[in-house]
Amino acid sequence: MPIDIHNDDLKTALNELKAREDTLIQLESISKLGSWEIDLSTGKAVWSKQSYIIYGESEDVQPSLELFLSHIVPQDLQEIKGKINQVLTTKEVISDKCKIIRNGSEIRELYISAQTVFDKNDKPIKIIGTTQDITEQVALKRHTQELSNVIETSSNEIYIIDSENFHYLYVNQGACDALGYTKEELMQMDIYDINPELSKENAESLRNSITEKEKTLNRTIHKKKDGSTYYVQSFIHPIRYNNQDAFVIFDIDISKQIEDEIRLHEQSQLLNYQANHDSLTKLPNRSLFQDRLEQSIASSKRNKEKFALFFIDLDQFKKINDSLGHHIGDEVLIESAARLSKTIRNEDTLARLGGDEFTIILKNISNPKDAAIVAQKIIDQIKLPIVVGTHQLYISSSIGISIYPDDSQAKENLLKYADTAMYKAKEEGRDNYQFYSSEMTAFAFERVVMENSLRVAVKEKQFIVYFQPQYSTATDKIIGMEALVRWQHPQLGLVPPGKFIPIAEENGLIIQIDTIVMEKAMEQFVIWYKKGLNPGVLALNLSMKQLNEKDFLHKLVDTMEKLDFNPLWLELEVTEGQVMNNPELSIQKLHTITELGIEIAIDDFGTGYSSLSYLKKLPLDKLKIDQSFIRDIPDDEDDLAITKAIIALGKSLNLKLIAEGVETEAQKEFLVQNGCEQIQGYLYSRPIPAEEIEKMLETNEI
Predict the structure, then answer these.
(1) What's the pTM?
(2) Which of 1.10.630.10, 3.30.70.270, 3.90.650.10, 3.40.50.300 is the CATH number of 277-437?
(3) How many CA within 13 A on the CB side of residue 382?
(4) Which helix (DSSP H) or strand (DSSP E) does residue 300 occupy?
(5) What is the largest CA-CA distance in the chain?
(6) pLDDT score at 247
(7) pLDDT tens digit string along 539-575?
(8) Is the pLDDT score of 307 beyond 90?
(9) Which of 316, 341, 433, 678 has CB atoms 3.0–4.6 Å from 658's, for a disulfide?
(10) For helices 439-460 and 497-507, what crossing angle results, to 10°?
(11) Per-residue pLDDT tens for 185-225?
């Protein structure tokens, strides 16, 4: 029996030992820690299972010190051998790190600890130790160090603050460089010291938001040690740091970005302003006006209110622009805009649609009389003299008015009706205002029909030429005649030029009409000359638009050659205002015409603003005194003086002179006495058809 009990105890002990061995193997595997020993008397070694795994050897291999050393990388071999010798001479534990080569190429990091076991006589009998594979730990530590270096040397500011009082627990060098403080200084501070915009209340709100969201994006201002400030974008995260709740803050200097945003915002505002305002007068343009008109309709509809829409056109502006140039015209527009602004309230809208056209939205009026009062103020303001440099200029205004909702509730109709009323104001003599009425729809329709018919007329050449004879004051004989256009409408009959010329000038058809007149008039002159008659010189009106066309001279020469028309029979009349609009270009182009043998006359002389320095350079043959100076002769002293001065000027420049609009013998007598050689006007003849002119030429009598 005792033997059985002894066997059972041994068996139990062996089982416990085996269990401990298994546990030890598991622990070694978990910690990647292998154990070993070397018998110094025999040189034999014993490795644990984990040691074989660490060195990458099969458990069939007999371990030895030499086998271990064969795995050490060459650069660590001498140091490890030195450590082995050191172990043999001391009872202390010796540790070191080294690298080995496993499986021929794989590098592993090891931490080896060893100690010598001595017998009772202090003789070393074996070395025992452990080998731990720390490759992952070394890599992690290296990575951690690298990250630490990145954080420390980052140009961005990185802070760690405690979550309670916001004191700094860590600051990187980037923060010190940005703020101008040392680390020691910053570690004695909190975020309130560098955030001038942050209050205790804001900080509490910020703390709550970080807690709720786990990370927060915040834009703020930092104050440097020298007192200057800059913008930062903060990324804030809650963390644990040194066993306490904290926040890590990553701050990026966004001052340049803020500057760009401000500049972009300013540019956006500028572009938006430019897109919605007239560059010259700074008034709302057509686009913004349309938006304001929509708003006014919506507001008035909601509040059951009326408003008036004014369409304003400046009378006489084109003459100023053509004669004095666009720079003077621009000043007139600017001054007109300023005067219009004075007549309305802040809540009203004044806009420039383009050219010399303005609109006003007069809000919340009780009745049309309110609009009439403002319209009269505008008329009175606009016709006050405008001084630009040395020029004192006079213009007037024609105003059309439509009323919301009386005339219409649609913005397109309101503008169209105001425009129609404005044209009616022009028909009524300008310098007045007209309210839209249903009768004006017919007026507007008539204009549309007229324009469409005019296009057909150009296509079908429905125009005929009337001629007004020009006479020599010395012989009372015809010395030439001016060609004037008339429209022979298929249904309406003869349409006077006053009805269609303004429309033709607006839509650009005037150049084509002038070309038709030129061809027909030349053709008629050739017929007369071939019949042996002497119609003298053909005077044709020439606009600078026509002259500025690239192929005008080519067409003119081709027409003369085709019709066998002698250039000496032709005189082209250009208005003073058009010539002075661009005198240098006019001089160049008119010289080209005179080289063909064609004479040049200045029409309407005295109504524009001529420069004598340019006048003497122009290749002129004749001055034509405007009828506005002749009309009141001999009763108006000013007209007498002006006409005498024009005649004297013409003679000093060796130019021929002709007066137009002569209707009385008294006018003729005055002109003859003062040396005007040629006359044109109702005193002799109205403009008449070619058949009647031919009869006059046959007798050359009045």
Answers:
(1) 0.48
(2) 3.30.70.270
(3) 28
(4) helix 286-303
(5) 178
(6) 87
(7) 988 876 777 777 788 888 889 999 999 999 999 888 7
(8) yes
(9) 678
(10) 80
(11) 999 988 888 888 887 777 777 777 776 555 566 788 899 99
Q: Quick one: pLDDT at residue 153? A: 66
Pairing type for strands 537-541 and 570-575 reads parallel
672 closest CA partner among 473, 528, 514: 473
User: Could you tell me what percentage of the chain is helix, strand and coil, using 3-state DSSP and rounding each to the nearest 5?
Assistant: 50, 25, 25
CA-angle at 418, arms to 412 and 420, nearest 5°: 100
Residue 412 burial (10 A CB sphere; 0-12, 13-18, 19+): exposed
Residue type, 395: I
Cis amide prior to 405 (ω within 30 degrees): yes
Q: Could you give the CA distance from residue 385 to residue 275 in angstroms, rounded to a whole number?
A: 32
**Which amino acid, one-letter code, is at 236?**
I
CB proximity list for 122: less than 8 A, separation 6 or greater: none
Q: What is the pLDDT of residue 204?
A: 75
Q: Is the pLDDT of residue 346 over 70?
A: yes
> What backbone phi and psi angles, to 5 degrees, belong to 386?
-110, 125
The pLDDT value recorded for residue 182 is: 92
> Which CATH code fits 154-258?
3.30.450.20
CATH of domain 32-133: 3.30.450.20
Q: Which of 359, 337, 372 is nearest to 417 (CA)?
A: 359
User: 463: part of which helix (H) or strand (E)?
Assistant: strand 463-472
The average confidence (pLDDT) of the chain is 84
Question: What is the architecture of the domain spanning 451-699?
Answer: Alpha-Beta Barrel (3.20)
Q: Torsion angle, CA of 241/242/243/246, rounded to 10 degrees?
A: -30
Give the pair of three-digit tokens for residue 246.
Answer: 């904290």
Q: What is the rounded distance in angstroms from the CA atom of residue 424 to the CA atom of residue 446? A: 12
Residue (of 93, 91, 95, 60) closest to 80 by Cα position: 95
Question: In 189-293, where do the E strands start and end?
Answer: 216-223, 229-241, 244-253
- Asked whether this chain's domains 154-258 and 451-699 adopt the same fold, the reply is no
State whether the Cα torsion 132-135-139-140 is positive or negative. negative
Residue 297: per-residue pLDDT: 94
**Alpha-helix residue ranges (DSSP H) falling in 36-182:** 49-55, 65-71, 74-88, 135-153, 173-179
> What's the CA gap between 110 and 126, in Å, rounded?
21
User: Is the distance from CB of 306 to CB of 367 less than 8 angstroms?
Assistant: yes
Question: Closest Cα to residue 468, out of 453, 455, 478?
Answer: 478
